Amino acid sequence: MNDVSNLEPNYVHGSKVRVWHPTEDSLPRCEMQNDRCLLEARIYRCFPLSAQDGYISFQDAGGHEACIVKSISELDDETRAAVEIELDRRYFTPVIARIASLKQEASLWKFDVDTQRGAHSFYLRGVRDNIHEVAPRRWQLRSIDGQRYEIRDLSLLDKRSVNLFESLF
């Protein structure tokens, strides 16, 4: 019979967790007070779309969860900064501020967009499968290479961008 006693989440208050990067390019280390130290910690959002600042999972290199912190605000400033660096690396999603052009090329849609990191071009196949409204007016797009893009609030885009986007449907 399998032991399921360890399936309960191990919630830890953020004040008991310390995270830092030993070197600039290294994976973070995570130390849990009176418990253990993860030499190559993996940090994930349990609910990346709906609770971006809550329920942060800390895992070892093998993917075994060591603990969950319910709110990033529980962490001290240094730890919060290190955790935010890791989460930004893991979940980087360019936010679309403007759709410069949208063209259909064969069975693909070519998007030329402006994001918080500058201009990008990407291709998307299958509107129904790769464009999803994740909350009212908030959209997520997935390009053919798997990169995610986000429109945080469609109503805040310029009228031309909104018209181009809505022409897909």
What does this structure look like?
The structure is a single chain. By secondary structure, the chain is an alpha+beta fold. It folds into 2 domains: 84 residues; 71 residues, no CATH class. Helix content is 16%, strand content 40%. The chain has 3 helices and 12 strands; from the N terminus they run ββββββαβββαβββα. The strands form 4 sheets. A 3-stranded antiparallel beta sheet has the order 1-2-3. Strands 4-5-6 form a 3-stranded antiparallel beta sheet. A hairpin with a 2-residue loop joins β8 and β9. It is elongated. The mean pLDDT is 91.
- Please give the order of strands in the largest beta sheet: 1-2-3
The low-confidence parts are none
What would you report as the Rg, rounded to the nearest angstrom?
Answer: 20 Å
Mean pLDDT across residues: 91
Structural shape: elongated
Q: What class, by secondary structure content?
A: alpha+beta
Report how far apart the termini are: 51 Å
Total domains: 2
Strand content: 35-45%
The H/E string reads: EEEEEEHEEEHEEEH
- Percent helix, as a range, is 10-25%
Number of strands: 12
Main beta-sheet strand count, sense and barrel state: 3 strands, antiparallel
Task: Compute the number of helices.
Answer: 3
Notable traits:
169 residues; alpha+beta; 3 helices; 40% strand; three-stranded antiparallel sheet
